[in-house]
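Lab manual, section 2.4: Encoding a predicted structure.

Procedure: take the sequence of the chain (400 residues), apply the prediction step described in section 2.3, and record the output as structure tokens. A sample record is shown.
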Amino acid sequence: MIIKRFFCQFIRLKNPETIATKAVLKQIDIPDYISLQRLSTEIGTQQEELQKLFNLIYPEKLDFNNLSQKIVEPILTMCESAPKWHPQKRPPIITIMGHVDHGKTTLLDNLRNSQIAEGEYGGITQKLGAFHVQTQWGQVTVIDTPGHQAFSNMRLRGAQFTDIIILVVSAIEGIQPQTKEVIEIAKKFQIPIIVAINKIDVIGADPEEIEVELSNYLELESFGGNVPVIHISALTGKNVDLLLELINFQADLLKLTADPNINAQGIILEARQQQIEEQGSTLLILQGTLKVGDLVLVGQQSGRVKIIRDDRGNSLQEAGPSCAVEIIGLRSIPQAGEKFFVVSNEKMAKLILQQRVIEKEKKSFEEETMIDGSQAKLHFNKKKEKFKSYGNKRVSRVQI
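Recorded output:
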């Protein structure tokens, strides 16, 4: 079924000082799947430039003959903010994962220099968070995912947007069920792994034996493979600096880039009600720069960014790629794991949200079993026509 999509195509006139920049609202028909060639023709952008942007935003391989609406939608909003893209080096995003009680939280505590381990119930990390580590090689963004088996979905979500996984394995207990799960996740998403064999300071620790055990699951460098291994003590801090150096080396090999000049987009890490009227949401910015006053669209809502805070609670005016920040401004609490992106104006946001409502209702009607299916279809078509009528009559030209 063909869904109507709207986007703003900005036209820079020859004398921008005397003639205002105009946003011409253009309506295009995008089916459930569209080829790159057809999309290029529809929006009037060179195919090579579009492909560069797709490769920049989506590092995984895409089928350019069948691009889904969910993949295309953020690209359209970015076409309006920057006709040319200039990728720059960005900090690596790492996720520390491992079995419960293998020292993952202690390593996190060592990296951010705070005593969160003592405040955790039962020694289990209860939520997904993020913070930044400043090293002599630059900044590293650290994502924390729970190690307990009950939180496997959160752990899986954390792996979907990370560059490198740090797999923490106890030099005493060796491979455990969550250790195997992390390895499976890394292989599924083709994410590089660095193995940190922890607790080498404990009497009876045998990291070499653990390496032999791990070699049955990973191609370790010590056995001629390409997975680095380092022996550390998260408690005493031994070799943690070498781990950070290794992370930087791996990041250089990956050649991580992002364009800070485009509209920001990324993913929701967590959201919570902080005060009576304050919705706090932690975002991980994957592309672009997020600024105070930006209009953020996520799920079925949009909102202006009123406050941006870093992981230490400091207020910021903007945050760039690979930054994890907390924002205030969304009307309701979003779902962790949802994608967000910035749009340029309220009209644009309203049109996209209307289309999402139509798609949500369509899906609900398809899934709902009704006695008279024709009545359900008629009801849906009436609502769809209502939204189409609104878009055609009320929003024909926007001027900024």
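Check your result against the sample. Residues 1-27, 114-128, 147-151, 387-400 have pLDDT under 50 and may be disordered.
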